[in-house]
Structures are given as structure tokens and as C-alpha cells.
Amino acid sequence: MWTRGVEARKAEAYRIHVIERAFPVHVVGTMLAILASVVSKVRNPELMALFDTTLPWVDFRDVWAVVSYVLLVCTQHARATYVTHYEIACETFAWVGLMARCSISRYHPHLPWGVIRFVTVVASAMGLRYEIRTQWAVIVAKMATACLIDTRVKQKHGAPEHNGKPFLELLRVEFGTFVFLTVVTLVTQYALETVDKKKFETAWATRRGARYSRGNGAERRRARRGDAR
């Protein structure tokens, strides 16, 4: 039971370590998301609905701006609670951001989306990451969802060369993008977490050694007091 307790404390300490390493980029990401949403609304004030039939009144740029602002405020004024629910915050930000990006791509298909998506994926891998052992499945699901939505958007609202093409034909092209960006995300996070793990293991061993030394010192002092008596 003692060993399980130590392992649980170590696992939680490692989780906090990964969060601390990603947190500065995470905060900057929320700021940039607010800025990007505001700039997009100023330049394109018209409604950009992604789902015409189910959510025709929802512009995900607005939702993303609100979510990003709330998260930013929480990082500054409710940090302990934020860290407790950090994984939920990351995924909320990422999924709403995904919908906002898909909305913009529907109305502006000629933007350099290949470059934009690569940059945002790398940024997400740096600032929206937590332990990859628990996040990898969510990453794959998120990328697969983006693949399906982008394919549908291209078929219905994309550039003239894509309009009206069979869904499966366009999906094959998007599948290549899905694989590439998923690999980029996972490799980036794995590389960053490898560095994090090495630093954590060194720090953990140092702390354990210090506690052991303090414990031995206390034992020696008690022994000396006993000898004196």
C-alpha cells in the first residue's frame, strides 16, 4: 500500500510537471485565439454558420472568443481550479477552435489552409498538451472529425474544382492530410514530453534523495540522544 501511495503521488507530480511546462504557451494561445476571433469578426462581420440545418445561428468564432476569454481569466484568477480541470479546458478550447477554423474555411476556401493548419496543429501540440498516454486517442478523434467536416465543406462550399465531387473521392485526399497532421501532433508532443520526463525524473530523484538524507539525519540524531542517556 505504501508503494501504491508513492506511485500515486509521483503520477500526480508528473501530471503537474507536464502542465507547468506547457502552461506559458497555453496562456499565450488563449490570448492569440481572442485576437484572431476579433480580427476575423472585424474583417468579416457577417454570420459564418458551419451547420446550416442544425445550428444556423451559431458562429463558432464568437463561441471561440468567449471560451478563450473565460479560460484566460481562469488561468489568472482561479489557477488552482484550472489546473485541477486542465485536461477539460484544453479539449474545450481545441474542439471549439476546430469548429471555428472549419467555419472560416467554409467561407474563405482560398486561404492557404495547408500552412495555417500546420502552424495551428504544432501550436496546439505545444500549448494544449497534457500526458500523451491519455491524450493520444482524443487527438486521433479530433483529427478524424476535422477530416470529415473539411471533406463535407469542400464538397458543398469549397473551391469550384471541389464542388459536387463525390464525398469519398474528396475524403481520400483529406485522409492524407489527416494522417500527416496526426503524426505531426503526436511526434511533437512525444518529443516535448520526452524532455519533460527526463527533467521530472531527475527532479524527483533529487527530492527523494533529499528526503532520505533528512530521514537518516533525524535517525542519527535520535540515536545520539539515546547513547547520551
Overview of the structural elements:
A two-stranded antiparallel ribbon has the order 1-2. The longest helix is centred in the C-terminal third of the chain and has 62 residues. The protein is 83% helix and 3% strand. The protein is mainly α and 229 residues long. The two termini are 36 Å apart. Helix 4 packs parallel to helix 6. The chain has 7 helices and 2 strands.
Could you give a short description of this structure?
The chain has helices spanning 2-43, 60-77, 79-84, 86-107, 113-127, 132-157, 167-228, and strands spanning 49-51, 55-59. With 229 residues, it is mainly alpha-helical.
Helix percentage range = over 70%
Tell me what portion of residues adopts beta-strand conformation: under 5%
Strand order in the largest sheet: 1-2
Low-confidence stretches: 215-223
Overall SS class:
mainly alpha
Number of helical regions: 7
Distance separating the two termini: 36 Å
Question: Got a strand count?
Answer: 2
Order of helices and strands: HEEHHHHHH
The general outline is globular
Radius of gyration: 24 Å
The largest sheet, given as strand count, sense and whether it forms a barrel, is:
2 strands, antiparallel
